[in-house]
């Protein structure tokens, strides 16, 4: 893997906005110190032995008020600019991630969990929000305010300034003791445990149907509970190790302790005649401005660290190399599909497919059958270019799929998956997903051909109904929407993963008819689970353990009395048995 991208390169596009926000924040912080200085000056003028100069008093009051105004206006502007930078950063990062995720090889996704990706795209991008929108303000005030106070106090009396600095320095030492390596490691562990909760939660929700059916009393969500317990334990350890240090730091930096130190030091110096009583006033007022930012500083640095870790995870995803693009792309000549001596392994060790040779003439229907795990989906993914063969080659129209631009390939090879995931947008947009220029008439025509027009028209907002909101679709309807999508794309090759279970025979018959219509005149490669659907196939391939065990037409293979014949008998018996005992569900 290439070097992950760090935090600063991610923030780079927003650097001018961030710089602007920083400058405004500095102005705001300076403005914020002025009222304090004004109060101090006012005290000195009013407490002076001679009568106060009215003009000077009003000037000080005006300066204090102006400072307050500058603080408010510049602070509001800084916040607005920082939030604008933040929203454009989030938008551009999510776009960048979305674009990148479409470019990484499909095989990468099979190694990721949905929860892990959600952590990156959602939570980690959100973590950058605090950094961009709030931390610059916190950190600037934490530096500028005590800095200015220190300069002013230093000018009044440097010895007293040192006294006022004692709690600050002790507080800083304690705070930095909080940020030791060990704690950082604990912190990373807490983060990782949080990520595991996200993964377990997504898995739990995705598998809720299975959990409900087979879950037993709490067993099924054990992974989630364990992840939550693990997080709680690590979090408590992390918080626990910090608790006494944090309390001590809070105590040292509390106004009470700070004032006590300044008063004790000041009284001693006044007693010794080393300080004018009026000069104690600025220390009493401004010493608090020295200590308050220490907590803000620590908090701000925590945010920077959290953002760095989030950026690390985002950067790792962005650094994942995209699927290789063909160096010299070629356009397929026709739609003949050839698999030449194809071998494939997912893990580099266990071959899933071995020495596979197959030629699929344009317009033919080829069925892939075989027991679960035989390699049917792997072949489909190879045909779609989602996977590249470990050995041998897959060709379309005489060109190796690796030499075909993805956009060219996907206009020729369409996929109708079994587990159709529709996007949370209108059903019309879902159908026109790959054919953005298609008009409504064409969308409706495709839906009609796929046998789903009647249902879509009956939805509350018709074709504008949004999936997941007011467009309720059964599994069969969703698959027909996906057939309509493939029809609209008008790809000459269809790869179909037949659904294993349909809600009812009517849905099944409709979906099957839609798929048959969609397939007319096209090459169809069907992963078939029900043998009744492939009796008309031009070629049936029976896969077993990564090899083609039998090949021929359906009737030929039944007559040969091999694997297919046995599967066919089993399914027919099952169907008869199910008919005889209607309460028993068929597994296939
Ligand atoms: P089928 O579609 O016939 O059920 P598959 O092509 O899905 O079979 O799987 C073939 C073999 O490859 C199985 O042993 C399966 O466990 C393995 N396999 C499938 N997908 C992956 C993956 N993403 N990573 C590792 N092994 C996989």
UniProtKB/TrEMBL annotation:
Residues 337-570 form the ABC transporter domain. The chain crosses the membrane at residues 16-37, 57-85, 158-178, 244-274, 280-301. It holds the Pfam family ABC_membrane. Coiled coil: none annotated. Residues 19-306 form the ABC transmembrane type-1 domain. It comes from the Bacteria. It is found in: Cell membrane. Keywords: ATP-binding, Lyase, Membrane, Nucleotide-binding, Transmembrane, Transmembrane helix. PANTHER family: ATP-BINDING CASSETTE SUB-FAMILY B, ATP-BINDING CASSETTE SUB-FAMILY B MEMBER 6. This is ABC transporter ATP-binding protein. It comes from Actinoplanes oblitus.
